Amino acid sequence: MKRIYIFLLLIPFLSGCTDFLEPDQVNLVYNEVFWKSQNDAERALNGVYALYRGLMIDGNWYERGDVTTGFFNRGWNGGSSDALYRPGDFSSASTTQRSWGGLEGLSEWSDFYKVIAHANLVIKKIEDMPDDIFREGKKEQFLGEAYYLRALVYFNILRNWGHAPYISDAIESSTQVINDDLTPVLIGRTKDTDLSMKVLEDIEIAVQSLGYSLPGSSDWGIRASKGAAEALSGHANMWMYFLATRDNLNNPGQYLTKAVSSLESLRANGGYSLETYSDAGALSRLYKGQSSEAIFELNVSSDQNESYRIDHGGVVRLTSKVVSLDGDATKDRASSVNWVPMSQKALIYPDYDFEEREGDLRANLFFDAWHSHYNEPFSDVSSTSTDRTLVTWMKKYSMMTVDASRAWNEYSAYFAEANIPVFRYTDALLLLAEGYVKTGQEGNAIAIVNEIRSRAGLTPYSGDNLLHEVLQQRISELIGEGQIFYDMVRNNYFPNPQVMDNARYQQQGYYWPVSGNILVSNKMIAQTPYWNGKTSW
Known about the structure:
This protein has 19 helices and six strands. The chain is mostly helical. The strands form three sheets. Strands 1-6 form a two-stranded antiparallel sheet. Residues 1-30 have low confidence and may be disordered.
């Protein structure tokens, strides 16, 4: 039962990456001669990191975790699909606005399973290697990293699709995926609570196998560590608490307790600290990479051949204006990026003073032109929004360098230079505050909330709904980092009600549909129930 249809795993695995992120170390077809040394094991492990980075480079984590909230709108000429945040029209089979059911590319999970396949192989092969070929502690460390990465990818799958196939065997032969009668081995979807338990098992191995990273070390924040595993434990246990409560399972509080203890350990022992927001260098420190808040992030650096051209895709293309390389201000992509309309701004920074253009420091730190009152996308032909300097766009990933080998007529030929955050310290602290609220430790939660508010230039908390305040601070801090929509699902709290009505929520419509390619190739995979009859495929 731990095998999966060949088209679901082997074909994506064998196809490999086709861009410059393709790592040589992913080619593991010569198993008999490859797994001989510690260096072999490390190269193979690096391949898992590279595959995961390649999976996340296109910005799907941002579109699923942020654009779905309704806080961002697409630009006049580009950006994310508005199907991510507008209610679907399912009135007839011919309608084109079918919400997520019109986004088959984001409904495809095969690339996630490509990473899983490689992680499975790395785990098996390293476990089988003799202990004496490794330096002291290295075998355990490598296995801890591999288990962490597999848990992380399955956690991504869990939050996106819920009920999804689970496979832990290393696929090394066609006999594992083809029956004796030459029919493919098939496997259906594993229930989300069972998949969640598998994630927690891998996390526990990672926590026990890894040590804390050292601040300032070369691996700080960009390789798995005990702190990264504890952050993942906090998130995964909070998600399991949500699922266990939803399904009335026995003792859901145990997962909440575990989340709190994991995050407390991270806070006490991880060596992390909050970055200050009081100077202009804060943005670069946070997102250039390996800041004091970096628990785990995906390295993006053109100097290390781990970057991507922003004009070819990725989160920078979706979010950032640029300076055109021919000096033409009209090519700054102002009409082609996601932006925040005025109607959404009070939901993101409710304490910002538009008349004085001050209040919450994060508004102007993380965004350009936050003071803009535009509710319509900028366009040169718009009747209301014609000033390109008044597009409110997110600056978090707007670090880039020019591609020296660009063609003469490539005006946005930049390499991305901002790391992709997976977990940062602010996220962990506010998740801990959420855990404190839910376990009755409100004093501890308020202390964290006030620390976050103080850094943002705000007065101490004085409201009457502490959980909502914690979730508000998560919105204000983590917008654009792939977390917010899952916070809303976990707490059934949607500031924009049009993105999730109660009927959809009760039918688990917060999970994504499955692509037609998967449904056709594996008859044991059924469509996510809410999406039956609601997709364009």
